[in-house]
Structure formats: structure tokens, C-alpha cells
């Protein structure tokens, strides 16, 4: 079952009024595991709140939001344009941002309603941004200590395949946090097949 969409402010969602729900996932930066986990870093609705907070700082293009999140996580997470642009469209539809065309791009600016909503959810927005920054710092420390999540010394094609696998698993978990058991089962089968090969 997918996590509830909190855009309508239903039960269990954070904030007031029309909320962008947030739920701390197990194993993320606040979780108990020692490994870095991207999939649970953003709960459903977090991207809407993060985008609004970043646009409050200054008007931004969708690409700017992607790059900022990639930088905050030391390059380990960047939301796809297929997620960011519908999020910005949603924010515009509910009146939290406006946009204007600049060549082939759209520049988004926060509205008074957006500022009010963000102020009501300021603690949550800052917590999510802090979580992303902490994840990035932890990832950089792991890389500096040689404790990368991926094994080193693998042939380049195998390493690229593992990076692709991680990206696919992350994308699936970001869209459906309940998919963890299915992904674990698929990976266990793949590991078994590799051992037999």
C-alpha cells in the first residue's frame, strides 16, 4: 500500500490545512542502520515542501531544485524532472507559487499563500532540509574513509550496472515505500543467480 497522499490534508498528515505529509522512515538518516539509504530519505510530499522552501529563498527553475538536492546529498540523490516539474505544477495550481516563462524555462516565485503555508510548516521544512544535508555529509565521510556503499575495484561495467541497480531501487522506493520487501526479494534472487553462474 502506498503512503497516503497528504496534498488534501487528510488524517496522519503533517502541517495545517492542505498539508504535505511527512513521515520519518526506518533506516533513513534517523534510522538505526549503519548503511546509507536514499530510498527513505524523502517521504511522499516532502519534495513539495522542499521546493517551496527553496523557492522562498529566491525564484528558481526546476533544474535549480534538482541540482541543489543533488549537491546537498553529495551527488547520491537527484529527483528526476518527471517528479520535480509535476510538483511545481501542483504548487502553482494550489496557489503557492507563480511562474513566468524565460526562454524555454519557467521561473517559479513564491506567493503570499505559499509563504503563509511554509511558515505554518517551517519546522518540518527545515527538518527535511537538515536530513538531506546530514545524509550528504555522511555520504562524503563514507567516501573519504573508503567505506563507499559500492565495492571498489570492480570492472567498470559491473560497477555501472550496480549504480544503475541502486538508482532503479531508489526510484521505486521513492514512489512506493511499501515496495521494500519486493525489492529485497528480487535482489536476493539475483544474488543467488550470480552465485550459481
Q: What is the count of β-strands? A: 2
- List the uncertain runs: 1-40
Please outline the major beta sheet: 2 strands, antiparallel
Coarse shape: elongated
Structural class: mainly alpha
The H/E string reads HHHEEHHHH
Strand content: 5-15%
State the end-to-end distance: 35 Å
Number of helices: 7
Give the helix level as a range of percent. 40-55%
Q: How are the strands ordered across the major sheet?
A: 1-2
Indicate the mean pLDDT.
Answer: 73
Task: Characterise the protein shown here.
This protein is mainly alpha-helical. The chain contains seven helices and two strands, in the order H-H-H-E-E-H-H-H-H. It has helices at about 45-55, 60-70, 80-95, 110-120, 120-145, 155-175, 180-195, and strands spanning about 95-100, 105-110. Strands 1-2 form a two-stranded antiparallel sheet. Helix 1 packs across helix 3 (about 80-95), helix 1 packs across helix 5 (about 120-145) and helix 2 (about 60-70) crosses helix 3 (about 80-95). The protein is elongated and about 60 Å long. The chain starts with about 45 loop residues before the first helix and ends with a helix.
Amino acid at each position: 500500500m502506498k503512503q497516503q497522499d497528504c496534498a488534501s490534508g487528510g488524517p496522519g498528515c503533517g502541517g495545517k490545512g492542505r498539508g504535505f505529509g511527512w513521515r520519518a522512515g526506518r533506516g533513513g538518516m534517523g534510522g538505526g542502520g549503519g548503511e546509507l539509504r536514499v530510498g527513505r530519505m524523502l517521504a511522499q510530499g516532502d519534495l513539495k515542501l522542499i521546493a517551496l522552501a527553496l523557492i522562498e529563498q529566491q525564484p528558481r527553475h526546476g533544474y535549480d531544485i534538482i541540482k541543489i538536492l543533488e549537491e546537498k546529498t553529495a551527488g547520491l540523490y537527484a529527483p528526476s524532472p518527471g517528479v520535480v516539474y509535476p510538483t511545481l505544477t501542483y504548487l502553482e495550481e494550489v496557489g503557492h507559487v507563480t511562474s513566468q516563462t524565460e526562454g524555454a524555462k519557467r521561473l517559479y516565485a513564491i506567493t503570499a499563500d505559499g509563504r503563509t503555508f511554509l511558515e505554518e510548516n517551517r519546522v518540518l521544512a527545515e527538518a527535511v532540509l537538515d536530513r538531506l544535508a546530514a545524509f550528504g555529509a555522511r555520504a562524503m565521510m563514507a567516501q573519504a574513509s573508503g567505506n563507499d556503499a559500492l565495492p571498489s575495484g570492480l570492472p567498470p561495467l559491473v560497477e555501472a550496472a550496480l549504480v544503475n541497480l541502486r538508482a532503479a531501487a531508489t526510484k521505486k522506493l521513492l514512489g512506493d515505500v511499501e515496495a521494500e520487501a519486493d525489492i529485497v526479494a528480487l535482489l536476493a534472487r539475483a544474488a543467488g543467480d550470480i552465485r550459481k553462474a
